[in-house]
Amino acid sequence: xxxxxxxxxxxxxxxxxxxxxxxxxxxxxxxxxxxxxxxxxxxxxxxxxxxxxxxxxxxxxxxxxxxxxxxxxxxxxxxxxxxxxxxxxxxxxxxxxxxxxxxxxxxxxxxxxxxxxxxxxxxxxxxxxxxxxxxxxxxxxxxxxxxxxxxxxxxxxxxxxxxxxxxxxxxxxxxxxxxxxxxxxxxxxxxxxxxxxxxxxxxxxxxxxxxxxxxxxxxxxx
Amino acid sequence: xxxxxxxxxxxxxxxxxxxxxxxxxxxxxxxxxxxxxxxxxxxxxxxxxxxxxxxxxxxxxxxxxxxxxxxxxxxxxxxxxxxxxxxxxxxxxxxxxxxxxxxxxxxxxxxxxxxxxxxxxxxxxxxxxxxxxxxxxxxxxxxxxxxxxxxxxxxxxxxxxxxxxxxxxxxxxxxxxxxxxxxxxxxxxxxxxxxxxxxxxxxxxxxxxxxxxxxxxxxxxxxxxxxxxxxxxxxxxxxxxxxxxxxxxxxxxxxxxxxxxxxxxxxxxxxxxxxxxxxxxxxxxxxxx
Lengths: 222, 289
Prior knowledge:
The structure holds 2 protein chains of 2 kinds. By secondary structure, chain A is mostly helical. Chain A has one domain: Up-down Bundle (Methane Monooxygenase Hydroxylase, Chain G, domain 1), CATH 1.20.58. Chain A contains 7 helices and no strands. In chain A, helix 4 packs antiparallel against helix 5 and helix 6 packs antiparallel against helix 7. Chain B is of the alpha/beta class. Chain B has helices spanning about 80-90, 120-125, 140-150, 155-170, 170-175, 190-200, 220-230, 245-250, 270-275, 280-285; strands at about 1-5, 25-30, 35, 45-50, 55-65, 70-75, 100-105, 110, 125-130, 205-210, 235-240, 255-260, 260-265. The longest helix of chain B has 14 residues, at about 155-170. The interface between A and B is medium-sized, with 11 and 13 residues.
């Protein structure tokens, strides 16, 4: 017999899944807006953030209700604690997508400085890492969560590559490119932060499943 | 039992640091967890079996209790937890047709041995029950009773002990003007604290609590729990409780019993956040059975 509490946990899982879907959609749309200098798409991302904000509050409320009313223990406690943290990480990812969209707006009326190469790749890595974190949460798959954590250097390398190119090849050679280079620089930074949030989610998922703390303990991943 | 390097033993993180200060004898047994039977364990049960007639109620229990710590024993009804703590002050002797195997050591002395005097033992090991059971006497007489039956006649000493015990039981402020009133007129929570004071008056080393808050309201329960946390500075405490939140709040270590077996023991925070045995997890998350 499925208990009422189990049904509520399942509902919480569905809500996190929805939050994850919104976050992924926001990243995809914001990067598309950046690539295509599409003002309307950028504004849509900014406007849609309110839905994530509302869902974040509702999930937080649900988690507190579950703790207050059921006093969960062991794996239930770890699940709810992880849901609270994931909720905050996903909401922050939504905010970062808004940041990318604002950078898209900033350059939308100007000619593109250069064809975007590394930023779309970084966006793909970010999407993949967030999707991996969500999937590992839903399936309780720690191997997948570990892969997400171990993907972080890839994102860092891509961000550094974008920074290096924009700073040394453009801004230092021609200061007048700064107004188009800086928004791209910031967009790369925002996407790299999305990857950091995916890593944080994945680390929490490993704790949720195995009760093993890997945060600040990279050796535990081996 | 053999001497080993305690730091290298798996499961040692489950024991309070007070137990792992130096090399001690360790007996690796159930679930790969380590039991400490060293000089720092106040109570050690070794290979304890217990029978009600032909029915075996405890199966090969090996567990130790740290001094000045609270250990909670949890488990479903009929799992043997009350049977086990009643062995620690030989209450089982009051039930006909029972027998036991194994030994329970308190400071190295086997308290189940016929050589150990049960009356002397019960001075060292006090017990508080589910239902408050004050005598139909005054408040003062209830607390003084244990001293008087133990031959204390010095009235000043008795008075001093009664006041001290009532203070330790966090009851003095409430009933200092009612010492000559009947104990039966106190509230349930006050009666339970009076029973704790009665227990403290004979200066025990170990206090056993068998579901001490089962019949109390949340305010009285909170007072008893606060009291347990205060008392552990001086006494070794073992508490049987069905209330998992209570076990989590008051205990340092927790042991889970199931159908007469000790399934898992360890630090309370670990047991309630990340139990190792699925049966423990199922029980504490309410999915048992």
